[in-house]
Amino acid sequence: MIKLFRKIHYIYSVFSIVFFFILFRPLYYLGTRNPKYYLFLNKIRTFHSFICTAVTGTFFNFEFEKELDSKQTYIYCANHTSNLDIVIFCVLARGRYHFMGKEELLKNPVLGMFFKTIDIPVSRESKISAFRAFKRASENLEKGMSLIIFPEGRIDEAYPPVLQEFKNGPFRLAIEKNIPIVPVSIINIWKLMWDDGMKYGTRPGIGDIYVHEPILTSILGIENADVLKDEVFKKINSKL
């Protein structure tokens, strides 16, 4: 019975996301036409996220170690266990932000629109693709657009999830651009939706997210990138 309920809820969740995406598509289309509209685009993404979580009975409980500065540009680093993680950051980051994600998302019927415009696709197997992606992210950070990245690089096949080794890119970028890193522990979202929800279904509930105090990078050199990476890993893992 529980499995059946989760499958029904999954179908309903997918329908809700697609329905509201189609409803907002004209606004999304307008927002992706020019970078000067990206702030408007993100406001629609945030509103879309609020509606979809509300109608599916999914809510988020954010706990902040220290209040974030709404005027500060950040690099958000989080563990990645669910497609809901994207929704979480549309609610958390708001304003001027963009995602970096796997190249396959270019073909996603919903997210593809964003990864062809505001967000940054990257191929895990290509050093050239990674170089170009982080160069573009660097330029966006200089424009005041916070970066949201999942440094594991993918959702691992382990269930229940276990935090996997981080990639180096975001930590070198944070030091080079003197951008504070915000570690975020997404604690139990996988219980509501693991990966895309297809295998185990989904269910309503409250997801807990712990937002750690930003780590300043102004006193660090590139040689400290691995140390920074390890520190962020430990902070995120400490709440999982």
Give the proportion of residues in helices: 40-55%
User: Terminal Cα separation, in Å?
Assistant: 29 Å
Q: Give the CA-based shape.
A: globular
Strand content: 15-25%
Backbone structural class: alpha/beta
Query: Total strand count, please?
Result: 7
The Rg value, from CA coordinates, equals: 17 Å
Mean pLDDT reading? 94
**Uncertain spans:** none
Description of the molecule:
The protein is α/β, with parallel strands linked by helices and 240 residues long. The protein contains 8 helices and 7 strands; from the N terminus they run ααββαβαβαβαβαβα. The protein has helices at 2-31, 38-55, 84-92, 112-115, 127-142, 169-176, 189-192, 225-237, and strands at 58-64, 75-78, 97-102, 120-122, 146-149, 181-186, 205-211. Strands 1-7-6-2-5-3-4 form a 7-stranded mixed sheet, sandwiched between helices. α4 links the parallel β3 (97-102) and β4. α1 runs antiparallel to α2 (38-55) and α2 packs across α3. The longest helix is centred in the N-terminal third of the chain and has 30 residues, at 2-31. The mean pLDDT is 94.
Task: Summarize the SSE layout with pairings.
Layout: H1 2-31, H2 38-55, E1 58-64, E2 75-78, H3 84-92, E3 97-102, H4 112-115, E4 120-122, H5 127-142, E5 146-149, H6 169-176, E6 181-186, H7 189-192, E7 205-211, H8 225-237
Helix pairs in contact: 1-2, 2-3
